[in-house]
Amino acid sequence: MRRPWWDPRAAGLLLGYAADRWWGDPRRFHPVAGFGTTASVLEERLYADSRPRGVAHTALLVGAAAGVGIVLEKATAPHPVMRTAVTALATWTVLGGRSLEREATAVRERLAEGDLAGARGRLTSLVGRDTSVLDASQVARAVVESVAENTSDAVVAPLVWGAVAGVPGLLVHRAVNTLDAMVGHRNARYLRFGWASARLDDLLNLPGARLCGVLAALVSLGRAGAALRSWSRDARAHPSPNAGVVESSFAGALGIRLGGTNRYGTRIEHRPTMGEGRSAEPSDIPRATALARRVGLGAVLVAAGAAAAAAVARRTGGR
């Protein structure tokens, strides 16, 4: 069979990214919502306050996602157009950049209207911390931190795994990321049961976070040095091996200070300071989303380029 002039994986990543930027997440019948429902049902049957049960829960669900991805890749392998379409659909499904921007903008609009209570309420869709006592500056800080972390987790990292492993990589990353959001919490119920999901999420996001940090510096409009210095100086103090990288690089790129005290119910965390300069302000939210857009565009170009280069290398190696 004659090979197409394009690489289906690279083309699918580009088309899926464009679909996410244009439409955002599907409004109805989102596959990730179905996965979450399945995960909840399985949790009811498997739950116990133990790591082995959590490992089983994670293995079954992530294994199923990998299996679906492998079947789709094999079924569409002889049909380049179909494989491109399936990769694009999977990419659109797992990316969350446009929806992240919409939520951040909605919080900013409420702050601009002087509706602090409304901004606090809308912020709960972005962060897990207690938002009820935050002032406008603290709300802005929470939004910028969420934009930074989720740009890595919901845009850059899935594109990396899509370039490396195609549809299986896209689906596995989103499955792990969803499980971490559901059970990867440091509380009495999930400290042991959610351990496997949380650690696997950290592992899969390692390369994406570093690429996100590099891209944030490269597209920071003259603040590359500040972004890299902030990363080098501040990231390791953060409790997350990945969030520290992206929050510190975004802080340096934007010229603001992130980090501080966060309240999660009865639990209080004192996060290290990321970056230098003034505290975050509501006007920094659109600057953060603009930076995130540039990072996302850079990530899809890197991912598509890497996928295309790998395809060329396979062809020439085959000869």
Q: In percent terms, what proportion of residues is strand?
A: under 5%
Rg computed from alpha carbons, rounded to a whole number of angstroms: 20 Å
Uncertain residue segments? none
What does the overall shape look like? globular
Mean pLDDT: 94
Quick one: how many beta strands?
4
Largest sheet: 2 strands, parallel
Through-space gap between termini = 16 Å
The structural class is mainly alpha
Sheet with the most strands: spatial strand order: 1-4
Helix tally equals 11
Helix content range: over 70%
Order of helices and strands: HHHHHHHHHHEEEEH
Structure write-up:
- The protein has 319 residues and is mainly α.
- Helix 1 (8-23) packs parallel to helix 4, helix 6 runs parallel beside helix 7 (136-183) and helix 7 packs parallel to helix 11.
- The mean pLDDT is 94.
- 71% of the residues lie in helices and 4% in strands.
- The protein is globular.
- The chain starts with 7 loop residues before the first helix and ends with a helix.
- It has eleven helices and four strands, in the order H-H-H-H-H-H-H-H-H-H-E-E-E-E-H.
- The longest helix has 48 residues, at 136-183.
- A hairpin with a 2-residue loop joins strand 2 and strand 3 (267-270).
Keywords:
319 residues; single chain; two-stranded antiparallel ribbon; two-stranded parallel ribbon; 4% strand; mainly alpha; globular
